[in-house]
Amino acid sequence: MTESARPRKRIILGAFLSGVNHHTVWSAPEAGSQIAFSSFEHLARTAERGKFDFFFLAEGLALRERSGRVFDQDVVGRPDTLPVLAALAAVTEHLGLVGTLNTTFNEPYELARQLGSLDHLSGGRAGWNVVTSFDAFTGQNFRRGGYLHRDDRYVRADEFLAATHRLWDAWGEEAIVADKESGRFLRRPEDGTELGAFSFQGDQFDISGHFTTPRPPQGRPVILQAGVSPGGRDFAVRRSDAIFSPYRHLDEAQEFYRDIQRRAALAGRAPGEVKILPSASFVLGDTEADAVERHRHIARQQVTGQTAQILLEAVWNRDLSGYDPDGPLPDIDPDPEGPPVIQGRARLHQDAHQTVAEWRALAEAHDYSLRELALHVFGRTDFVGTPRQVADLIDAFVQNDGSDGFILGSHLTPTGLDEFVDRVVPLLQERGALRTEYTGTTLRDNLGL
User: Which class does domain 12-169+215-289+380-447 fall in?
Assistant: First the structure.
């Protein structure tokens, strides 16, 4: 079916509060606090005013380091995810509340209770971005340390999800309906089975007992995951409701979209059951030229010379502070086997030598400096233009199956999303690509799951 012949897809939108990466221009005079609840509240209320599907909060479990010292250009001091989302449940009515929580350094019973409780407190609006970790640096903050081998991270994550599903299902669907008024129903009437009884045995977990939290309103909170490797993609289509896509250009995004849908079908999932959501940012101007100039200015605030060096150090695994950010790429080879120069940053490029070779070819073809290359390869999907141009670009990307929507972030906390809601949202609503009112009562309803 051609794009013109099929129904228009409704765009899914999430609001992303940056804070653990270089996209946040925390030094801007108009930037607000990364810790004060007022910042989280402002962004969540703005997203709900724009009829967004959910608020998304990332999380880092360790302060990142460079050569043994904490990054001096990173935003640090972020509160814990779950208390923030629980507080936001009290000041929003429809917006989904999605948090990043790690399967390597948590336990199924603990997270199942916390997420189930958030789903109850919010009336069915909880979501979980499932992430893994294998590095010893982050593991130093936890009892288990860095024991988990890279190859085992999805093994544990897959079993973790299976265990949490068992826990959420421990109270049968009929039990929560019967119990919803009193909260005191102790046995299922049909067979006398104790409510909440569970048992789960696997290679990673051997747990049993009684689950204390009644079945969540959604049955299970919405699950999001970022899987790019073949193993990550297979895990995502088995366990996730939505997948973060790292692809910024339509052709590669379409290829990823098709591959995920193919894998989902092989896993027995229905068409459209797994949503694809890249992160993105936007820059608006009264004219296209204004927007382009503003984007150039913001990008250079985000990627300073020092930031560019550090971003490339994560791949070279060498100290690049002696190289001019406005000069050519380093003339030395990467050292992927050496002691880590950068600690606490996810490894996005598995083959350092291949990546550096590709970057050198790219820099030669476009005459990029070190900093210009960093601006090119580490940027998000940026929609730049007038409000109508940005609305056109977002709609075209989704309708042509580059994604099912976007998780939008801004360089400015917490007010950066305001102008998108004020100037772009009405244009998307006008063409029928974005809801004008919430119709569902849960996050699953709003996402069409």
Answer: alpha beta
